[in-house]
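User: Round two. Same drill as before: sequence, then structure, for each protein.

Assistant: Same drill it is. First protein:
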Amino acid sequence: MTAKSPDLLAPLDLAFWNIETAEHPMHLGALGVFEADAPGAAQHAAELLAARAPAVPGLRMRIAGVLVPVGGAARVPVADFDPLYHVRITEPVTDFHAAAGALMERPLDRRRPPWEAHVLPAADGRSFAVLFKFHHALADGLRALTLAAAVLDPVDLPAARTPEPAPRRGLRLPFPGLRDITLGDLDPRRYPGHVRAVAGATTQAVSIGASVARATWGVRTSPALSAEPTGTRRTAGVVLDLDDVHRIRKTVGGTVNDVLIAVVAGAVRRWLDDRGDGSEGVEPRALIPVSRRRPRTAHPQGNRLSGYLVRLPVAERDPLERLRAVRLAMDRHKDRGPHRGAGAVALLADHVPPLGHRLGGALVGRNARLLFDLMVTSVPLPSLGLTLGGCPLTAVFPLAPLAQGQSLAVALSTYRGQVHFGLVADAEAVPDLETLARATRDELTELLAVCTP
């Protein structure tokens, strides 16, 4: 009987695993707030999470090194999986975000499946929160959502597409877009197609590299957006009315995402001016991740990401002009697609052998600030109501990983008529994160006022 092949980490997953340091944890998270229906609701929720976790295969996987390929790693099941190590309940708290920030500081145990779920009872007993943490090598935002949803109460979701069958065994080439080559494929009459594919991959790499170089020219950023990593974390949340966002979109045009990115640009402007750093001439580069997953794929594995690199028009005084600038930039990126431009630098991971990721991970991690100044990412959520132990989920704040050398990351999700912003910052570099949260709300209010007089 043939042994099952290991679930090897994709190049981008391996990169995330290798760039982590003690001062630079590479995990993402989500803070979900639930309405409590009884005094013991938080304890019951923790018991349910622990009871359901063993039945979710993805939660039983740890990451271990492999002999072949050299420098590679794989997801392997844990025989002695203990859900009580991963699911924990805290003492009652008065501020969910303050507690979440302290918990986000702690690196995940790399010897175990790299995830945790912390249940936070509210001091008043009316609600509780659950902070999910996943290492980026185990899950990107969409995969993390799938794993978290698997331990919430069952819901009726649309049927997912049956996964594609595993490819035939053969010679694996380290280039994206190439399938495995079997002996039957080595017919010289067919070989030129593979040569063209290799050439195309090389051309793509050169094009992305040139775009990265161009993206560093004439950069006007702010020192407030960069910081030496301290390992400390602070989080904050902002809730906006999705109907307000739609009113702006219908008046000015563009997409909901365009409006929200413009809100981020205006909020950063207000925040910089408020703290005395000034916004004059500032155009920070925002990395906007783009998923390359096929729609309705069952059990998505690993990171399938590209991105757009957008200069935020922070220096622009007029909120409508900021929105127009964002729209133009996003339209240009969409016309080119997620496989081109400086934001597609994640695709270059596919061109690097595993040993290269192992040896160069720390170097790449330290230089993220040379490519972009902050991340602004959107995490999709189902529109239907989610519950845990019958307690409804009332708010969910996605928490993006903070790139090494950067002080701020922004993630957002829409859920049941609201937009939830999750702000993550280095706690020492950004002690005034609540100021940015207020600026986000104020920016939407002003934009709504000028769009709907």
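Second protein:
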Amino acid sequence: MDFGATLRRLRDERGLTLRKLANLAHYSAGWLSKVETGTGEPTLELAQACDDALEAGGELVALARARLSGSTQEGVPRPAQLPAGAGAMFVGRERELELLDEHLELAKSAGTVMTVAIDGPAGAGKTALAIRWAHRVAHEFPDGVLFADLRGFVARGKRADPGGVIDGFLTALGVPVDGIPSSIEQRAAMMRSAAAGKRLLVVLDNAASGLQVRPMLLGAQGCAVVITSRRRMTGLVLRDGAARLTIGPMEPAESQAVLTTAIGSQAEDETEAIRALAEQCAHLPLALRVAAEKVAARASYRVADLVGDLATKNLDVLTMDENDFVHEAISSSYRQVDPPAARMFRLLGLHPGPDIDLGAAAALAGQPFTTVQRLMERLEGVHLVEGKARGTWHLYEPLRAYAARCVLEDEPPESRDAAIQRLTTWFLSNPPASE
């Protein structure tokens, strides 16, 4: 959308006549009328005055700056920034792909922008899903596809700066570097203006929070934004109208298909071992692919051999290899929660089963029920535990194994002993109901 049309829209939204805007901005109504109809050229001074009068948050200034710098250059190549991941080896998630398709169709029908936040635990395949879907629908976005890894849960290094990400997007869309404003608010406004009248797809991967993502959201009809995060983006849902898509473990048939596809001919005639290996990996795509690679890399190593190793050595067989993908994925979530929640998580490694109720968790922590409820909800918010019924949580096997390791490495022996004693006392006082 050009400057004049945007000025007219903002003025109408605020219920101002040209004369009232002229009084506020200290420009003549006749000149403002020419600017709105495109027969008058806006200056930065006029744009700033109108922006202030209409409380446009820098949108008009960004549009004027882009117009004056010649941001609508012809010959700029269509951005196509998607990484090559999630190719031929992508298996399953058909229902989730269909849901993303449905969100896109709903946005088209309503004449709005599509914004979807995909959340789930480490290793659930959020990035692969988003990239796979984006490749599948890229042809519907003729003005380009933009991608950024926001590094929200990296173990080392800094998170991506939203302003820097927007700079890259604007440059890809043809805005000269010297035409990009300095403030994050003005950059965000320019990004929205650059997207107006276009059909763009933006994929924001590995977001830390809604605060990091919000400046990069678009408002233009025909555009789409897909976000992935280990954190539930409640703020984006409630405040910005994003749809939420939570993913967890794959369906058993899908996870078995991941293994057989990745392992290849070595998996022939090992149907039962494939089923057992999928269960040991908790049907989580990252663990499944690491397991498949361990089998495929050694011609003499059978699926049944890995199943046996996992049964005796737990997930250390997967997490202690030279790449350590599973360990690093979970570690980056664990290291970013606050210390009380981190201690609660590692103490769960002392629990004998994957499901724990509030009473047992409170016994482990030695804290009141209300405190532990809040701690478990914080862990649930970043998918280090998954809620079942009210007051009951589940730990997928890779998370249980990691919690068991952390409680040995990070919790003092006397604290571990005291937690086990409290848990034992709790179990004796609250035996499970008889069948």
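The longest strand covers residues 114-119.

User: Perfect.
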